[in-house]
Design brief:
The protein is mainly alpha-helical and about 475 residues long. The chain has helices at about 5-35, 45-55, 60-70, 70-90, 95-120, 130-155, 165-180, 195-215, 220-240, 260-290, 295-340, 350-375, 385-415, 425-440, 440-445, 455. α1 packs antiparallel against α7 (about 165-180). The chain starts with a helix and ends in a 9-residue tail after the last helix.
C-alpha cells in the first residue's frame, strides 16, 4: 500500500476511537444524568468540557510533534485518552465526570491533529482528497457503531461500560503507529509561545464555561456572564499579543489565504449546527418521545451511515463541480435537513426518520470533505502545522458552540411556556436556531473564486468553459 493509503488508515484508529466515544456518550446522556442525579441538559457541560479541552491544547499539538516527534506524541495522546476514559467510568458526580472528560480531551487534542499533520506531510497535494477519504471511511464506522452499541450497553448493562470500549482500540493504535509512523520532527521549529498559550487557553476556557453554564446549571447567572466578559478580554489580549510576537501559538495571519479563511469561517458556522445534533437528537428521541437508549441508537446511527456512503463518491463530485458550487449547494440543503429534525414527532414513522437522517448525513459529510480539503489548498508544507492547529481549534469551538447554543435554545423554548422540564415541542425551535446558523456559512463560501482549490480537487475547469 502507498503512504497515501496506509498512513491515513493508521490515524483512522484514533479518529475511530474518538468518534465512537462521542457518539456512544451522546446516546447514553439521559441514563448518565439519571445515574448522577442531574438534569439531562446539565450534561452539556461534559460535552463542552471535552471540546474546549481540545481547543485549548490543539494549538500546541503541532509544536509538540515538531519538538518530540509525531509518532511519540501520537502514542502518548492515545495513552492519555485511555486514562481519561477510565476516569469517566469511575465518576460518581457531575463535577468528576466533567473533569474526566476535560482530561480525556487533552489526549484527543494531540491525537487526531498530530495524525492529520502526519498525513499532510506524507501525502502529495494531488492525492490529498483520496487520503482524507481513507482517513474518514474507517473512522466513520465508529459513529455508525456508536449509537446502537451505546444504546445496547446502556439499556442492558451499565453506562460505565461504554468507556472501556476505548481501551482495545487505543492499544491497537499504539501498535500500528509504532510500526508505520515515521517519528517526523521539524529541525527549525520556533520557540513555544508560552504567554500566548496561557492567554488563548484561559480565554477560550473561560468564555466557553460562561456560555455552557448559562441557564439553570452549575453557576449563577452573574458568574456565567462574568466568565463571558473575562474570556472575551483574555482573547482580546491574545489578539494584541499575537501581533507583537514572531511565532504566536495560534497564527491568525493564515486567514489571509482565501481558501483557508473560507474553510475556517464557513466551516465553523456550518459545524455549529452539526455540533448540536449529537446533543439534541438523542434527548428528543428519549426524553421527548419516550424511546429507550437502544431504540434511539438504532435510529441515530443512520446519519453516520449516510456520511460513510458519500465518502465513496465525494471526490468524483468535487472533480465534476468544484469546491465552490458544492459547498454553496450543501450549505442550504444540509441546513434544511437539520431543521426538519425538529418536525419529528412521536408518531413519525421510524423509516422516515432513518431516511431523513441518512440523506442529511450524506450532505453534511460531503461538506466536511470539501472544507477539510480546500483549507490547505493554498498553503505550503511549512505552514501545515500552524494551519492544522488553527483549523482544529475553530472546529472544536464551533462544535462546542453547537452544544451550548442548542441547549440554550432548548431551555429558552421551555421557559417561554413557564416550564423547567423539557418536552417534545421544545426541540423544533432549537433545531431551527442551529440550522439558520449553519446556513449562514454560505456567505463565506460565496467569496471563493469558481476555480478555488482546483489543484486539490483535480477539477478540469477548462473543459467546462469556466
Amino acid at each position: 500500500m502507498r503512504p497515501s493509503q496506509i498512513v491515513p488508515l493508521v490515524v483512522a484508529t484514533a479518529l475511530f476511537m474518538e468518534n465512537t466515544d462521542s457518539t456512544v456518550i451522546a446516546t447514553a446522556l439521559p441514563a448518565i444524568a439519571r445515574s448522577l442525579n442531574e438534569d439531562p441538559i446539565a450534561l452539556k457541560l461534559a460535552l463542552t468540557a471535552y471540546l474546549v479541552s481540545l481547543a485549548i491544547f490543539i494549538p500546541i499539538s503541532g509544536w509538540m510533534a515538531d519538538r518530540y516527534g509525531a509518532r511519540t506524541i501520537f502514542r502518548a495522546a492515545l495513552v492519555v485518552f485511555m486514562a481519561g476514559s477510565l476516569a469517566c467510568a469511575a465518576s460518581d458526580s457531575l463535577g468528576a465526570f466533567v473533569a474526566a472528560r476535560a482530561f480525556q480531551g487533552i489526549g484527543g487534542a494531540m491525537m487526531v491533529p498530530v495524525g492529520r499533520l502526519v498525513i499532510l506531510r506524507a501525502v502529495p497535494k494531488s492525492e490529498l482528497v483520496s487520503a482524507l477519504a481513507y482517513l474518514t471511511i474507517p473512522a466513520l464506522i465508529g459513529p455508525i457503531m456508536g449509537p446502537p452499541l451505546g444504546g445496547l450497553i446502556t439499556t442492558y448493562l451499565d453506562w460505565r461500560w461504554i468507556f472501556f470500549i476505548n481501551i482495545p482500540i487505543g492499544l491497537a493504535g499504539i501498535v500500528l503507529s509504532t510500526i508505520y509512523f515515521e517519528n517526523i520532527r521539524e529541525p527549525s521549529r520556533p520557540p513555544l509561545d508560552v504567554l500566548g498559550f496561557l492567554l488563548s487557553g484561559a480565554g477560550l476556557a473561560t468564555l466557553m464555561l460562561g456560555l455552557a453554564s448559562l441557564g439553570r446549571h452549575l453557576l449563577p447567572d452573574y458568574v456565567s456572564w462574568g466568565c463571558l466578559g473575562g474570556g472575551a478580554i483574555l482573547l482580546a489580549l491574545y489578539l494584541a499579543h499575537s501581533r507583537r510576537v514572531e511565532h504566536p501559538v495560534i497564527r491568525l495571519d493564515l486567514l489571509k489565504y482565501p481558501t483557508f479563511r473560507a474553510a475556517v469561517t464557513g466551516g465553523s458556522l456550518f459545524r455549529i449546527g452539526t455540533g448540536a445534533i449529537p446533543f439534541l437528537l438523542p434527548l428528543m428521541l428519549q426524553i421527548g418521545f419516550g424511546l429507550d437508549p437502544l431504540q434511539s441508537g438504532l435510529l441515530t446511527f443512520a446519519a453516520a451511515a449516510g456520511a460513510l456512503l458519500i465518502k465513496i463518491i465525494g471526490p468524483r463530485i468535487l472533480r465534476a463541480y468544484g469546491f465552490r458550487r458544492v459547498m454553496l449547494f450543501n450549505a442550504v440543503v444540509a441546513s434544511c435537513f437539520l431543521a426538519v429534525n425538529g418536525l419529528f414527532t412521536a408518531q413519525t414513522p421510524h423509516w422516515l426518520i432513518i431516511g431523513i437522517l441518512l440523506v442529511g448525513g450524506c450532505v453534511r459529510s460531503l461538506q466536511f470533505t470539501c472544507v477539510n480539503a480546500i483549507a490547505y489548498a493554498d498553503l505550503d508544507k511549512r505552514e501545515m502545522s500552524s494551519a492544522t492547529s488553527l483549523a482544529s481549534v475553530a472546529q472544536q469551538l464551533s462544535l462546542s458552540l453547537g452544544v451550548s447554543i442548542g441547549a440554550l435554545a432548548l431551555e429558552t423554548a421551555a421557559a417561554q411556556h413557564g416550564r423547567t422540564t423539557i418536552e417534545a415541542g421544545d426541540f423544533s425551535p432549537a433545531f431551527l436556531t442551529v440550522a439558520l446558523i449553519s446556513c449562514a456559512s454560505l456567505f463565506a463560501f460565496l467569496r471563493l473564486k469558481p476555480d478555488a482549490g482546483a489543484e486539490v480537487s483535480g477539477q478540469r475547469l477548462a473543459s467546462k468553459g469556466v
